Amino acid sequence: MRSVWVLIRYRCKKQAHNRTGQKWADEAGKESIEADFAKMKKYCVTIRVLCHTQPKLFKLRNKKAHIMEIQVNGGSVADKVDFARSLLEKPISVKDLFAQNELIDVIGVTRGHGFKGVTYRWGTKKLPRKTHKGLRKVACIGAWHPARVGFAVPRGGQFGYHHRTEVNKKVYRVGVKGDNKSASTPFDLTDKAITPMGGFHHYGQINEDFLMLKGCVVGPRKRILTLRKSLLTHTKRVALEKINLKFIDTASKWGHGRFQTDGEKKAFQGLLKKDREVME
Q1: Sorting pLDDT into bands at 50, 70 and 90, what band is 30?
Q2: Which residue among 77, 141, 153, 235 is least crowded, i.e. fewest CB within 10 A of its CB?
Q3: Partners of 229 in the beta sheet?
Q4: How far apart (Å, rounded) are the C-alpha atoms in residues 271 and 252?
Q5: Is 80 exposed, middle or buried (0-12, 13-18, 19+ CB in 10 A)?
Q6: Distance CA 154, CA 23 (A)
Q7: Which of 32, 35, 43, 34 lies closest to 77 in space, CA to CA?
Q8: Residue 47: exposed, middle, or buried by beta-carbon count in 10 A (0-12, 13-18, 19+)?
């Protein structure tokens, strides 16, 4: 019914809503905004907020922010409007939404592989060597009647780059920006950050808040993911167990990493020539 816009500071919709955000500058605009909030509280049934990412925090060669509409649940409509208004133009961190030992769902797009044949795509058995016109095929794709190919018959086509949702991912750790002991545990008292030596493959260093999840997530590195609270009420022992991490490996992932920190490497191998030159 109504939409209230703030000043857009990213390229996602910056020019499209340039004038709508200027209402906050003058008194007449503020009065119209207050009237819109009042109408929302009186007539609206659902309240949604428009959120965007902050590309400047990550060096991913991405200037345009991703935007997403999120519905506000719980309480009356007036409470929803007040809650959404309190979050306008404010950053929301992962530590404000998720906690350790929690189960969350991960939504994303899988790694794409393009057009693939039926043997690669569905794992069907290859035909004998002397088969006419190729052997990586399905020999019979159905009867004469019904005169169409059934939906369950394996066929070649797009493989990967599919939208998928993985449920019940355990949160092992919630990291905070600037914590130099984010990879330390009660059993491993070494002061070390979560970034391994040499950085993560094709990503780099972790300089912001982070989540450590059990298992893998969909898609390649640097692809955006959507995290949400679990939709279920968990009662099983596996879901309710408390995680007590003993060791987080921060050795180099580019080779046979032997050392957990740069200081440990220098203590074992000695100073390099460039280190001596800096000391001199």
Answers
A1: confident
A2: 235
A3: 104
A4: 19
A5: buried
A6: 57
A7: 43
A8: buried
CA–CA gap between residue 190 and residue 192 (Å, rounded): 6
CA–CA gap between residue 203 and residue 83 (Å, rounded):
35
Q: Within 10 Å of residue 63's Cβ, how many Cβ atoms?
A: 10
Could you give the angle at the alpha carbon of 48 between the alpha carbons of 161 and 19, nearest 5°?
A: 95
Q: What is the pLDDT of residues 51-77, one digit of tens each?
A: 989 888 887 888 888 999 999 999 999
Q: Contact at 8 Å (CB) between 154 and 122?
A: yes
Report which listed range, 12-21, 58-67, 127-136, is most confident. 127-136
In this prediction, residue 18 has a pLDDT band, given cuts at 50, 70 and 90, of low
**Please, is 256 exposed, middle or buried when counting C-beta atoms within 10 Å of its C-beta (0-12, 13-18, 19+)?**
exposed
Answering whether pTM is above 0.70, one says yes
Can you tell me which residue has the tokens 């309190």? 86
Q: CA-CA distance, 53 to 70, in Å (whole number)?
A: 13
